[in-house]
Amino acid sequence: MTEKARLTRFVARDDTVLDQTFWNAFIAFLETRFGSIETVTAGYSAAKDALVERGLTAVQQQLATIVAELNSTVSAAQQNLLIQVNAAQEDADDAVATVVAAINQLNDINMQVAAVQAQLDDILESNSLPATGVTVAGISGLTATTVQAALAEIFDKLNDDHDAQGSLISALSEAATDLSDALAAHAADANPHGTTPESIGAVPATRQVATSGLAQGGGDLTETRTITVPKGTGADLRTATDDTKAVTSKALADAMAEVPLTDAATIAWDMATAFDLRVTLAGNRTLANPTNVVIGKKGRLRVIQDATGGRTLSFGSAYSFVGKAAPTLTTTANAVDWLFYDARASDDILISAAKNVGKP
User: Is residue 101 a part of any domain in this protein?
Assistant: First the structure.
């Protein structure tokens, strides 16, 4: 009977009685089928374990072969390295032995040199040759006779040089004495050659340094002389009375600086104080005749109306005008008129006007 046929028996129908007998039979059927499944599963598991074990065994065999080969290779390399190390150690020992032998040989040579040096020191200290001579082990051709002969020749040469030095010192001493005598004789004569300043082209001390014009100073040549030229100041240029000073550009600029006049009912003007002037009118004013008039002096007076305006300016008797009429000032508040002057005489100051000056 197939599994399907067996299972058909448990299909519920309308007339099927689902009693205890039905369910017992159904459960027994299931237990049988589960047992079959477990048996098959166990077979599969056993087969799987067998395959795994067989595979692991093969892998282990392969690994064992590889490990054996590696161990063999490492062992051979270790043996080869040990052989090379031993050979290098032997070479190093040979090199050390060679160096030690060379050092010992150098020490022997140094001892021989020290012995020779000691004997030579004794010879030089006693200034005599030893009867036995000087011997050096291992050096051929250096005998007591040859050393004695060489040293004797050296001492003879030194004696000859000493004699020559003595002769030279004696000659130098005589020359120094002669020079000292000559210097003493020269010092006793203040002018042994009769030299004069004129004979050597020197300027006589009686010669004078004279000055002229604005230059000052000078004198004879018995001492250092300084020539100076005094310079004028702005004030000097304004007064124009000092004729002994030079004009510089700064002094000229200072002199041309605008100077204020003091506003008053009658405005005083000292011409020596400025070239260019200014005044602000706070009322109707009169410009007084200038004092300290410098003939030929020219300049200008800037006349400014105050914030009120309407101010007038009258002139003293020393002024003359273009067209013989005094200018009428601009009376607008804060207006500016320029009055140009030319001092032709102390009582003739020409005035011309540039009225209402300003930017458009």
Answer: yes
Whether residue 36 lies inside any domain: the answer is: yes
Listed residues 60, 87, 110: the one ending a domain: 110
Torsion of CA 143, 148, 153, 157, to 10 degrees: 130
- pLDDT over 70 (residue 63): no
Domain count for the chain, please give it. 3
What is the per-residue DSSP string for 1-66? --HHHHHHTT---TT---SHHHHHHHHHHHHHHHHHHHHHHHHHHHHHHHHHHHHHHHHHHHHHHH
The whole-angstrom separation of Cα 184 and Cα 110 is 63
Task: Give the strand pairing for 259-260 and 276-281.
Answer: parallel
| Alpha helix ranges (H) inside 189-245 | 234-239
Q: What is the Cα–Cα distance from 306 to 303, expressed in whole angstroms?
A: 10
**Helical (H) or strand (E) element with 151:** helix 144-188
Check whether residue 93 and residue 158 sit in a common domain: no
- Per the structure block, which two tokens stand in for 231? 């310079």
Which pair of structure tokens corresponds to residue 187?
Answer: 């010092």
Q: Tell me the pLDDT tens digit for each residue of 168-193.
A: 677 777 877 877 777 776 666 666 66
Structural domain range at position 105: 19-110
Q: Is residue 343 part of a domain?
A: yes
